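Escalated from tier 1: 5-amino-5-deoxy-1-O-phosphono-D-mannitol holo job.
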Amino acid sequence: MCGIVGYAGPAGSAADTSQRPLDVVIEGLRRLEYRGYDSAGVAVVAPDTAQVSSRKKAGKLVNLTDTLAAEPLPNATAAIGHTRWATHGGPTDRNAHPHLADGGKLAVIHNGIIENFAQLREELIAEGSRFLSETDTEVAAHLLAREYRLAGDLSAAMRATAKQLDGAFTLLAVHTDAPGTVVGARHDSPLVVGLGEDENFLGSDVAAFVSSTREALELGQDQVVTITADDVTITDFDGNPVEPSPYTVDWDASAAEKGGYRTFMDKEIADEPQAVAQTLLGRTDRAGHLQLDELRIDEALLRTIDKIVVIACGTAAYAGHVAKYAIEHWCRVPVEVELAHEFRYRDPVVSEKTLVVAISQSGETMDTLMAVRHAQEQGAKVLAIVNTHGSTIPREADAVLYTHAGPEIAVASTKAFLAQLTAAYLLGLYLAQVRGTKFPDEIAAVLADLREMPAKIQAVIDSGDRVRMIARWMDSRSVLFLGRHVGFPVALEGALKLKELAYIHAEGFAAGELKHGPIALVEPGQPVFVIVPSPRGRDSLHAKVISNIQEIRARGARTLVIAEEGDEAVLPYADEVFWVPQSPTLLSPLVTVVPLQIFACELATARGLDVDQPRNLAKSVTVE
Ligand code: M6R
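Tier 2 regenerated the structure:
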């Protein structure tokens, strides 16, 4: 939550009005706006000025850029920018970042939550600091000012400040005494460095600077970084130098653009076949055996595990639910799926024989990160399925399996979900190979089926017009979703998409649960999506769902059925059918979820809502 950008580089000449530092920061904020969009602000340090110059504005980034057009900032050699998701203090101009201190010579931006802010605030007020906002961040600004007065050096002051803060934070600061310098610190919150030619960058993620450079440095936990136009210095909080880990971003700026689509979500749905194909790429050796090189966990250890626990939040947790069906079926090892924040705060039974699988698109979700640490403290090995390179969860996990979905900008997860499913299938098949619970030819057959899925997903996308039309006509205040087996997590995901995008009541149920209560919700005209399993799968499962459709239709439900091509048994009971290509049961979520994503996207668009940035949400939930 919150997007952070920092830049150090040459100022334009007097004749040059391009203002590169400010332009870079605004462009970075535009790309990071998906992380939070309550308010935005920038600060620049022009050489030979007595004060930092800043502008900040509540609302979306456009409010800030309009303000900058009316009240321009001076040309500078360093700039910082922030796009906010409010935690402490409402989304007002005053609470927007940057926050100034030291008589306006110092500016600070922050992502995270400073848990001991109340106590620090009292101390600082007693010492004479004047607070202008209700934020926890302003405490860091005044604390940094105090430490700067003692140390006379911004990096040293940042280290001293960071050591006094509890909670999670990324901080960036500029000071008029060091006009071409930006200093950053991170603890449990993301920050990456971009390396340019005669200029350097800082960002919450690489999207902040990928249009300028794809060369990046990972920052570790509890590190302070100082950038100038031609230097990057990294230390730990004690001032010991740290050897940085460089990497090259494997996507370019165009991947983070809308590319002609109405919204990022439309584009990301269109990207789904590629996201699945890329995630499958290069995972087998010449003999066709699965080779998950990045896994870094000894095969002997994988043979000893007696339980798998999947931890994740939101959509990623639903990918975990599907993984449970596949892994238990292929590997005969019990799999539990738990929301990361619930796992973390109960007393889970895990041991060195437990494999914990953490699924996260961003790799920064605080609940999942805390659960990862908790599992490791109990002796479990953690394997991360993550989309974002350079993020914290894969760095701290014992093993990683990257999804290759490319950047996902829309707050609602779509292509990352399909890539997570794909990675989970790969993991299940790999465990079956290592543990010998499937014959090699059986594994090869599933892999062959998986390789056919991108074309099938494309077919669903290509036939999306009917579901779009139904979405545009939908006037109900509530939509229900039913599924059995792997259709159940798909139902949950369909409901989540509709809630977060269209703000209407939506609930997913296991179809078998219907008569245990939820059927009471069904009244004449109630729209109910039903995900019907393949009739070629387990016979009884298909027949049971057909019975469920009859039961709700008898009570007046309007049935919107997702069924496999050729499944004529659904026709008498369906008000609408959305056909998906025939697929093996365990892999079918890769196609059955797509109409539900399209439905939610279209319904929200038709209602004039902001599909990419739904209210109250942010892409990465980096606070607990
Ligand atoms: O980055 P993560 O995969 O860890 O994020 C987990 C959830 O916050 C995320 O899936 C969220 O539920 C999405 N907004 C759903 O569309």
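The mean pLDDT is 93.
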